[in-house]
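Margin note from the TA: students keep mixing up input and output lines. Inputs are the sequences; the output is the structure of the whole complex. Example:
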Amino acid sequence: MKDLNLYTGKRIARRNDGSFLHGSGQYTDDLDPADMLHAAIVRSPVANGTLIGFDVADVPSTATVLGPDELAEHVVGDLPVVWKLEGQWQERTPLLDTHLRYVGQPIGIVVAASRALAEDAAEKVILDIVDLPIVVDALEALAPDAPLLYPDSNSNVLAAFEAGDTEDHIEEVFAAADRTLLTTIHIGRVHGVPMENRGLVVVPSPSGSLIITTSTQTAHAVRDVVCEVLGKRQNAVRVVAPDVGGGFGLKDHGYEDEIMTVIAAVVIGRPVKWIEDRNESFLTTTHARDEVHEVEVAFDFDGKLRGLRVDAVRNAGARFSIFGGGPLFAAFGVLPGPYKWDAIRGYGRLVATNTMSTGAYRGFGQTQAALVRERAVDLVAEALGRDPIDLRVQNMIRPEELPYGTRTFIEYDSGDYQSAALRAAELIMEPAWPEDGKVRGVGYCCYVQMTGIGNSDTNRAIGLDIGGFETADVRLEPDGTVCVATGVSPHGQGLETTIPQLVADELGVNIDDVQLIWGDTETTPYSAYGTAASRSIALGGGSAVLASQKVAEQIRQVAGTMLEASPDDIRLTDGAATVAGTNVSVLIREVAKRASQGFGMPEGVGPGLHARHAYDPPNATFSYATHACRVAVDVATGEVVVEDYVVVNDCGVMVNPTIIEGQIHGGVAQGLGAALMEEVLYDNNGQPLSSTMLDYQVPVSASIPDIRIEHMETPSPFTPGGMKGMGEGGTNGAYACVVNAVMAALPDADNSTLHTPLTPARVWEAAQKRKQLD
Amino acid sequence: MTNERTVEMNVNGRDYSLRCEPRRLLSEALREDCRLTGTHVGCEQGSCGACTVIVDGRAQRSCLMLAVQADGSNIETIEGVGADSETGHPVQIAMHQAHGLQCGFCTAGIVMSLVHAHRNGISRQDVTKEVLNGHLCRCTGYVNIRQAIDAAWVELEDNK
């Protein structure tokens, strides 16, 4: 138990801002080791074809080309798909394939003295490709006569699975309900667009070991895949994540072009750098979503929600990315949201097409689940003439009903969903609406977010082939300063500040004496995730708390010996170990020095002050929020302006409210972007239409209103410290909230089908097309 | 290289004489030849603003300028901003205090545009409504950057 709370919960300014504000950050592309060469990737220009020739005759001799044959000599394994759903046949994907299935698929690598020269040389490679018929749209790919991405397979379905209740049960519930409604929701394909593109610098040593510095969320997972594909020993490959310019789920694994860069450095025996450009990022860094949901909701005339049935098709792209069909599986898991239902059922299909893979992106399916459910609830409210918040609150799980087991086999932990909803509704109605000829609407989204996922055996049970724990290693150096090595890997989330806040309080030391070590397979404990999936503060933080508690006990033991007092009476505050109720004390740095010398250690302690804790949580943690926003729609142009935005959020114990608010702001911006403007598009030939930041529109400052946030704080009953994860929550809430607001502004519009993003063209069209009256 | 040109420029008060291919971007010359890697490249087409530097008193996207065009110029990059002060430029201080940055990749470009606007007395409203819209940030949702602008402009506007 910590003896004083000096830091946790405080708005402490981030400790690592200085380097970014003064230009001394160290991102991957900032590295410049001696003798380094630069790489460019040779990519498929077609969406479907067979590669029959790779001609390098015109490539200048100043460049080194590694084509499919040269690369294949170094490949012993495939890239794993770590999430295996029932009925899934694709469990791994090859690094190299003569069947080209999407534009941008990496084929070979060219290395030269500069990137410009490498790109010049790559243009001289002549590819001989036999074209094959192309399918881009997932629903078209399901047609019996559709071209097959994998001709040995009899369809383009990579996996099909069921979730929640049985067909019999859902039929029973739907038959007994007073009424049902149907809607179709098209969820557009999006790209996470981190500001820093992917990239890596590979430094080989003559002994065969490698140092790979790469823009990743998860150094250990990159090492896993590099070693698996190339047959390297993990203790000879060091992967380092330096400063990383955003990830959002896209940098959660090693990619094919990155592994090709590793091969090139090994073959040439010199450092090689490859930095993805923005065009490549749009083509070949994992996309997300691209789903069609057929949604049916059953309810009673008194407003009771009965059942929700979803038939979803997700465009998986040309092959599974590392988390396979996981996002759709996760979406079904959290489909119930904060409401009580009699039945929930999801049927999901993952369909291969000639497009880039879809994979993890902030929200990991939970964003789509929120849209599907919250649209359905709004349609029920509209059909019954009920206030949308009133109907939501009627159906919500009450605080005294928690913990609560959902129809999708999830156990929610703690919270007060109603209070959040009512407060958000109150706040959004506060300012008077302007009168300027625009139509306005208020939208809501109430969600429960699964965060801090684990434990490991639960992962295994749902087909996820990686552990769910996080480990922290805490040690005091001889001078009393503290090193905390963690498996989580911050790239904007402020963990360099928040984890030391937790540790400093547990040890009773000054936060300035606590240093976080992260993002290096050589110095940090193994983590399958790094920083992803809203896990870092719950599990990275939780493990740091537990390891610190072990070290605190060691300090008390050694201090007790030094002060001739019982360790139970020792309090750790302000850098000193003090006998409770006295002024007898010793500085913690003196305790650290004594322990480093090993002089007079008590039984079972030291020498040294050092502990490691692998925290495998008993359950996930469940944050929740209600988002509410007001939009103004210009029906003449279809333009939507989000004018006001409110979030009432509960993510358990807050370590640093300022950082939590920053995460909410950024999440809302990404959810709003997906709701109104962001969409990855292909033409019918599988050629990308959104391959620059001018074609793929992300929000600018003018797109995002000020966001009013209020906090609730219901501790997690599980996490040491009481924290719940929250990094993805803003995105999950904003997407549905903004869409609902736009539809609320257009009460007469046809809402039987919906297609996000709600671009001006789609809004204008919806405003023109009046709904059919019953 | 056969067609390299000499480019003389002063960056953050220091003179550089570089040999550059005509096609070399100013952003590349700053990052790779001057080894000033605080300037970041996000899109290489002028849409994201991350590479903004100040060239002869004007805020410029260094990915849209060739190094040879900067011959004879005085350039200021993020490394030079606030370097003469212990606490940094008011914009840097405000960005830190308002939590106006997360991953930090877009930050240098935003700071350069804001510093340029601050020095030139551009009004807070114009900075928020115009200048900031020339930059993409994917982490902050811009809310806290606008807070930072408010804070950094308080003193400026009080002095008017």
